[in-house]
Design goal:
Helix content: over 70%
CATH architecture: Up-down Bundle
CATH superfamily: Sodium/glucose cotransporter
Shape: globular
Order of helices and strands: HHHHHHHHHHHHHHHHHHHHHHHHH
Structural class: mainly alpha
Radius of gyration: 22 Å
Strand content: under 5%
Largest sheet: none
Distance between the termini: 51 Å
Number of helices: 25
CATH topology: Sodium/glucose cotransporter
Length: 536
């Protein structure tokens, strides 16, 4: 029954996606990379959420909650506040430029070298960091939920991991390489609805396993048994120390939701600013509620399985799902989870193809006169090569203690420098390419040395120090660019011209909903806060 349900829902999503996108324009750059600028709020919200909400979140963040409790909700609720900033500040500026990629904006703001450097950084990061982690966590989660060892008869963990990684990678590549952005967005939205329903069901069933007297009785049982797990304030030894919410954690979230090509590419395909803001803020509302399915199950798993000898935190979610869901629903959720995996994977691949085609092939290789078909085909080829590389790298992550912690550490290497030059480009009107290019290269170098070269890496190994190191590096890069805007300024202040591609009329509810999200985040934090952990 589990396998039948899994195959049925997976096939249904594929058929519906094909039916809705069969007449789409995949023959032009705008059609393939930007969905023809036809995306409305619902598709943008669904695609944003599911691109983010994959197994590195379901498996990784619930694994972090297993260890550190509800304090790790910072990654979700601060994301909601970051999406407000995206909707009200960054998105109007991006759509004004009529861009398809962040590097394209940086070329308009600085120069072609800035675009080339940033494009290469994004492509290397997606190929070497993001895609392998998506495949590894996806395979690990799927193996636990579907009990693939029992179904396939393959007892060797490593062999089964390689097979599962390649299955997910090949299917995801087909979606991304042959479908384009709108295909990705439509399949994301369908799977996103299923994941939302499935995620809530898992939490409800898991609470039932804690206490059969109902949801509130189960929550009371958990809080009485593990009060330390329900403190939103992370202590110095937590993976998310409270003070880091204002430095590294905040900056990583801001980059992720305002500058990360893989995530925000679907907002560039918005039909209007109104629809873009609507989609981003709907996603923001769901993000502040996401701890229900991304944090609470990890705490429940701790209550149920912490006494098992050798139990690994990153196995918490897969084990919980396989234990609490009926077989029919297990198959449904496994299918939805595969959809979530494919969403993140194919979004990163689509972004990689976009970055290469429009930022490297057309620009660096000097094929400005190449026809649209050749540009798209070269993007597809690079996407396929990157996918194969990621499939070889993913199983090698099996020895990591915390995959979510590893992801955040690796992300900081390029998140901080890129975010600093984008923000400086907006704030310092006379900032020139000289300062931006030096900040990009120097920033990546500083963070690489600080994280991986002894004795510096020994000092930054603790989360508390590491996140403050990220914050300090960001301030240093911003200060450097400000000074350079005075020492080597542009002859004239930068003028942000409207490309005319998108209607920039804002959504009238954008500011009220945005402020409401921020207020909710503050109230939620203080309602669960016990600051006494900071004194210890």
């Amino acid at each position: 029954m589990t396998i039948l349900t899994f195959l049925f829902f997976t096939g249904l999503v594929g058929i519906i996606t094909w039916f809705l996108t069969r007449k789409d324009d995949h023959g032009t750059s705008t059609g393939y990379f930007l969905a023809g600028r036809t995306l409305t709020g619902g598709f943008i919200a669904g695609s944003l959420l599911l691109t983010n909400l994959s197994t590195e979140q379901l498996v990784g963040l619930n694994g972090a909650a297993f260890t550190d409790g509800i304090a790790v909700m910072a990654w979700e609720v601060i994301a909601g506040a970051s999406l407000v900033l995206m909707a009200l500040y960054f998105l109007p500026k991006y759509l004004r430029s009529g861009i398809a990629t962040i590097p394209e904006f940086l070329e308009k703001r600085f120069d072609g070298n800035t675009r080339t450097i940033t494009s290469f950084i994004f492509i290397l990061a997606y190929a070497g960091i993001l895609l392998p982690i998506i495949l590894y966590t996806g395979a690990t989660g799927l193996m636990g939920i579907l009990d693939l060892k029992g179904i396939t008869g393959i007892e060797d963990h490593t062999t089964l991991l390689w097979i599962t990684v390649w299955f997910i990678g090949i299917v995801g590549s087909i979606y991304a390489i042959f479908g384009g952005l709108r295909t990705v967005a439509v399949s994301d939205t369908i799977n996103g609805f299923g994941l939302l329903v499935g995620g809530i069901l898992i939490t409800v069933f898991a609470l039932g396993a804690v206490n059969e007297d109902g949801i509130f009785a189960a929550l009371s049982t958990l809080k009485e048994a593990h009060p330390e797990k329900f403190n939103s304030v992370g202590g110095p030894e937590s993976s998310v120390p409270f003070s880091t919410l204002f430095t590294g954690v905040l900056l990583l979230n801001l980059f992720y939701w305002t500058t990360n090509q893989q995530i925000i590419q679907r907002t560039f395909g918005a039909s209007t600013l109104r629809e873009g803001q609507k989609g981003v803020l709907i996603a923001g509302v769901f993000k502040v509620l996401a701890p229900i399915i991304l944090v609470l199950p990890g705490i429940i798993a701790f209550h149920l399985y912490a006494d098992r000898e050798g139990f690994k935190a990153d196995h918490a979610y897969g084990t919980l799902v396989s234990q609490v869901l009926p077989p029919a629903l297990t198959g449904f959720f496994a299918a939805v989870m595969v959809g979530a995996i494919l969403s993140s994977f194919n979004s990163a691949l689509n972004s990689t193809a976009t970055l290469f085609s429009l930022g490297v092939y057309q620009h660096l290789v000097k094929h400005d006169q190449a026809d649209e078909k050749k540009v798209i085909n070269n993007g597809k080829l690079v996407g396929a090569l990157v996918a194969i590389l990621a499939m070889f790298m993913a199983p090698l992550l099996d020895q990591m203690d915390s995959i979510f912690g590893h992801l955040q550490k690796m992300n900081g290497l390029y998140f901080i420098p890129i975010f600093s030059i984008v923000l400086a480009g907006f704030l310092f009107k006379r900032a020139s390419a000289v300062g931006a290019n030096i900040a990009l290269i120097a920033g990546c170098g500083i963070l690489l040395v600080g994280n991986f070269v002894p004795p510096f890496s020994d000092l930054t190994s603790a989360p508390l120090v590491n996140f403050h190191f990220l914050g300090g590096t960001f301030l240093l890069l911003m200060l450097f660019q400000f000074i350079m805007s005075k020492v080597a300024p542009l002859p004239e202040p930068w003028e942000h011209k409207h490309s005319g591609d998108v209607d920039l009329t804002p959504w009238r509810w954008a500011k009220p909903i945005g402020f409401g999200i921020v207020i909710f985040v503050v109230v939620l934090y203080f309602s669960l806060a016990d600051f006494s952990v900071l004194k210890g």
